[in-house]
């Protein structure tokens, strides 16, 4: 059942300290390490739909950063020349995965994180990355509890600007 959308108040509430929420704080060094590592990224939610953000970001990861890429989507499509799989559990044994990048809604990401946890050793998964707007603190805690690194509520393409700038300053 879809929630009923309510009209926004007019005027909109003012932005002040009382109404502010605190965005998840990611470790900048972890982000840097994940982005400069040449390892394979699994992109959950990736299909050939060019209108989806997952398509453009995954293309950027492959073309600009030279990442190995594995699409995960129920349709198991070949995307950017890479064979897709319907789930993490369908990826062949021994595949060494650096990051499971989640382009799915927050309400569904917990199940993907749990699947990453279940396949952590089989697929040598190092980290889970929840895209911009995807937040599930409980799932992040479960992942960290088994030794997975977690980045949440941000996009690698956005973070790359800071990594690249910091690298130039070093």
Walk me through the structure.
The protein is an alpha/beta fold and 170 residues long. It has a single domain (28-169), classed as Rossmann fold (3-Layer(aba) Sandwich), CATH 3.40.50.720. The protein is built from six helices and five strands. The protein has helices at 28-36, 53-63, 106-118, 120-123, 137-145, 156-169, and strands at 40-44, 68-72, 97-102, 127-130, 149-151. The chain has a five-stranded parallel sheet, with helices on both faces. Helix 1 (28-36) crosses helix 6 and helix 3 runs parallel beside helix 5 (137-145). The radius of gyration is 17 Å and the shape is globular. The N and C termini lie far apart (52 Å). Residues 35-134 form the CoA-binding domain. InterPro entries: CoA-bd (IPR003781), NAD(P)-bd_dom_sf (IPR036291). This is CoA-binding protein.
Topology summary:
Blueprint (H helix, E strand, L loop, with lengths): L27 H9 L3 E5 L8 H11 L4 E5 L24 E6 L3 H13 L1 H4 L3 E4 L6 H9 L3 E3 L4 H14 L1
Parallel strand pairs: 1-2, 1-3, 3-4, 4-5
Helix pairs in contact: 1-6, 3-5
Protein name: CoA-binding protein
InterPro entries: CoA-bd, NAD(P)-bd_dom_sf
Principal-axis shape equals: globular
Q: What does the average pLDDT come to? A: 88
The structural domain count equals 1
CATH fold-level label:
Rossmann fold
How do the helices and strands follow one another from N- to C-terminus? HEHEEHHEHEH
Q: Compute the gyration radius: what is it?
A: 17 Å
Helix content: 25-40%
The side-by-side strand order for the widest beta sheet comes to 2-1-3-4-5
- Give the CA-CA distance, first to last residue: 52 Å
The CATH C-level class name: Alpha Beta
The oligomeric state of the chains shown is single chain
CATH architecture term: 3-Layer(aba) Sandwich
Number of strands: 5
Structural class: alpha/beta
Low-confidence stretches: 1-21
Give a quick account of the main beta sheet: strands, pairing sense, barrel closure. 5 strands, parallel
Domain CoA-binding: 35-134
Organism: Pedococcus bigeumensis
Protein name: CoA-binding protein
